[in-house]
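Protein modeling request. Please complete all fields; requests missing the sequence field cannot be processed.
Requester role: graduate student
Desired output: 3D structure, token encoding
Chains: 1
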Amino acid sequence: FAPSQWKVYLDGELVFTHPYTGSFFESLRVNLTGENETDAVAIDNLRVYGTNHVCCLGEECIITNERDCEGLGGVHHRELDSCSPDNPCGPPTPVEDRSWGAIKAIHR
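Delivered output (108 residues):
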């Protein structure tokens, strides 16, 4: 990150001004005393969660971020933005167990 892309407030709040996701290591130098000295602060393994996407809780579809989805025991799908018109978390499509030869015979 470049310093212009995020801000850290003394109350511990970290605000990103650009969208990022992933795990990062970052260190910075800040003046915590108001004097001319600076103290080093390390942020190790910072996990940034992105925007809301589909979260499947079994067959139930909700829209939430990855952290909340994982906390609920769901599966987060970054590639999906909507639970409609067809529920992407719905029951799987049943199939018949067939051999490769039987499948090839269908197309002859």
